[in-house]
Amino acid sequence: MKKTTERKNVICFGEILWDILPASAQPGGAPMNVAYHLNKLQVQAHLVSRTGQDEPGKQLRNLLTEWGLPVTYCGTDAVYPTSEVHARVNAHHEVSYEILYPVAWDFISYQSRYSDLLASADALVFGSLVTRNETSRATLFKLLEKSGYNVFDVNLRAPHYAPEHVKQLLQATDLLKLNEHELILITDWLSSSCSSEADRIQLLQEKFGIQEIIVTKGSRGASFFTPHAQLDCAACKVEVADTVGSGDAFLAAFLAKRLQGNTAEVALAYAAALGGFVTRNHGACPDYTLSELEEFKQSQEAAKLTCPETLLQVL
After folding, report:
1. How far apart are CA 307 and CA 301, in angstroms?
2. Exposed e or buried b for every residue in 13-39, given b needs 16+ CB within 10 A?
3. Each residue's pLDDT expressed in tens, for the chain with a length of 315 residues
4. CA end-to-end span of the chain, whole Å?
5. Are strands 212-216 and 44-52 parallel, antiparallel or unpaired?
6. Which CATH number is associated with domain 9-314?
7. Strand order in 83-89's β-sheet?
8. Distance between CA atoms of 61 and 131, rounded to whole angstroms?
9. Spans of all domains in the chain
10. What are the helix (H) ranges across the chain?
11. Are the C-beta atoms of 102 and 133 separated by less than 8 Å?
């Protein structure tokens, strides 16, 4: 892939919300988190979402503007409120969520102006959560028909998904990101004969024609798969503040570096670094500069903690 200095454009479709954490309320939603980090990494991100016509919605939109994220395609809803998710963090830093329903982003209706936005976009990022309501689900499938490169960030939160909708999304996916639990759950819907990670990856590749798959593995790092190769990377060794949004940061860094023409090896190393950087901070969108991220990445590499041996296995 040829490196480029041309600024890339990505559409992030779906939920934006307030995460109500034990200590404070933080802006959140996987598409918004990805957009935040893409913007930090010099990729133009456009959010297509919806907030309520309420004070939480006003605060969220003002914050997006402060971050340099345009709210042009974030509608407002006079009926449904801005989304809130009540998060609980256990002693192992694992997070569980109570996702309120219905909320404004459940009702993202399709607009003709999205066609022009898609025409200039290099990628469309979306998740499974936004398919829980038919209005936003229908809009997403229309976008997928027009988009040239589709990035599916799986986010299975029971009871807010249906297997048939997830399978439809997989049919339209070019780059898939999911965690180990989601990999097992989805492939178990499709077959009872998978006995290994390799079997599960092959099943997804063959059934849906997905060319790139990322499996995140928490403290054990992540793996990147194509039909011909597997690339493994270790996680950063950091003192964990919380894990909220670390996967979103990982995806944003990987996607940004790939769109900018870097190899998968380079992209994976940056993804691990940004995921670790976010994990040692509270909240999904900590403030940072590129120089701070680079310094953190270099310190990890110097200590041989981030991708000490990036492993490439030809399949």
Report:
1. 7
2. bbbbbbbbbeeeebbbbbbbbbbbbbb
3. 567 678 999 999 999 999 887 778 889 999 999 999 999 999 999 999 999 999 999 999 999 999 999 999 999 999 999 999 987 777 776 767 799 999 999 999 999 999 999 999 999 999 999 999 999 999 999 999 999 999 999 999 999 999 999 999 999 999 999 999 999 999 999 999 999 999 999 999 999 999 999 999 988 999 999 999 999 999 888 777 777 789 999 999 999 999 999 999 999 999 999 999 998 887 789 999 999 999 999 988 877 544 444 444 333
4. 20
5. unpaired
6. 3.40.1190.20
7. 25-28, 17-20, 83-89, 95-99
8. 23
9. 9-314
10. 30-40, 55-66, 114-119, 134-146, 163-171, 180-190, 197-208, 246-259, 264-279, 290-302
11. yes
Residue that the structure tokens 């110097």 belong to: 302
If residue 233 lies in a helix (H) or strand (E), which one and from where to where?
A: strand 229-233
Cα separation, 34 vs 44, in Å, equals: 11
Check if the beta carbon of residue 146 is closer than 8 Å to that of residue 172: no
